[in-house]
Amino acid sequence: MLPTISGDLGISATQTGVALTVLTALSAMMHFPGGRLADELSRKTVLVGTILAWLAGLALLVLTVNYAMLLSGFMLVGM
After folding, report:
1. How far is CA 56 from CA 40, 52, 59, in A?
2. Inter-residue contact 58 to 40 (CB < 8 Å)
């Protein structure tokens, strides 16, 4: 995945690695708050919000033309 992203966007491997690290870190950090929200609201509400954020992130990744869009898309998918 790294060479494809770097080649398509013309960014360094370091920048791509940082973006993938942000994706993984946000995913890990959102597990506990997501569970708390599901307890306070409902699981369905949290799942719908999660799916909408995930779809928005994937749409942004599909349309990515620069590093900022890549990072924003990975952040949405990670959350």
Report:
1. 24, 6, 5
2. no
